[in-house]
Amino acid sequence: MSEWPSYRHPVLTHKSLKLLQDKLASKDSGITELSITLDLKQTEDLITLDHDKQVFIIGDYEIKIPGSFDPSNPGCYFIHEGDIYPISVFSEDTNMYYKLVPTKHGRPILRISATQMHKKPFLDFIERRRPRGLILDAGTGLGYSAILVSEYANQVTTVEWDYNVIEVAAHNPHSWKLFESENITLLNEDITELIKTFDDNSFDNIIHDGGMPKSSGQFFSQAHANELYRVLKPRGHVYFYLPKKGLKTGRDFGLEQIKRMIKSGFKTQIRDVEGSYAYFVKK
Question: Which residue range forms the structural domain that includes residue 168?
Fold first, then answer.
C-alpha cells in the first residue's frame, strides 16, 4: 500500500461554486437545501444554504464563496476547515504551473502550464487489453492508468518524478485509489534512473507515459528504451503514450521513438496516431 496522503476533502468545480453562488443570491427562491456532488460526480450530497449569512454548510463549517472567485476560469477547488482553495500550484523548481481541470464526465485532467494531459484514447486502449501480472507504470500522472490496471493486475509499481503532480493527484477524488489500493506502490523517483536497479525480466507489462518530451529528460532516449526491453519479460507488452509533437511541422516524433524501440528489440504491434499511442511486444 502506498505511504502517501489522500486528503479526502470535499471538491467542487467552478460550475458547482457558481451554482451555489447563484442560489445564495436568490434569497426569495425558498431553497434551503441543494443536492450537489462533492467528489466530482461520483456521489451526491445534500448541503444546506443560509441566505442570510450568504454561506453554504458542510458538516460543522459555514463556507463563504470568496469575492476573488472567477466562475469563468475552469478549475477544481477543495474545502478544508471551511475555506475554499484552488487545486493548483506553481513550482519555482520546475517553473511550471499545475492545475486540476474538470471535465463533463467527472474525471478531471491535469494541466501543466499550457499543456493538457488528456489521454482518454490511451486509457481506453489499456482497458480493452486488460494487462495482468506485475505492471510497471512509468509516469503516474493522476494515477488513472495505475488505478485501472490494479483491478486485474497482481501488483502495480507506478513511478512519478514530479512531486507537484503527486500533490495535485492527492486532492483529486478520482485519484484516491492510487494512494489507498493494496496492490499499488507509488514511488517519487526518476524512472530513467530507477529502472537501472530492477532485475532483468521483472515485469509482465509496462505502461509508459511521460507527457511531453521537453520536460521528460531521458524518458524518450535510446538508452531508456534498452532498459525497458531488459526489465520486461519475454512476450511482455509496452503500452507507450506518444505525443503528437512535430506532426504539424513535418517531424514525426512518435515514429522516431518507435524506431528506438525497434532498435532495442521490440516489435510494433499497433500504432494509433490519432490516439497518440503505440503498443509493443518483446520478441
Answer: 115-282
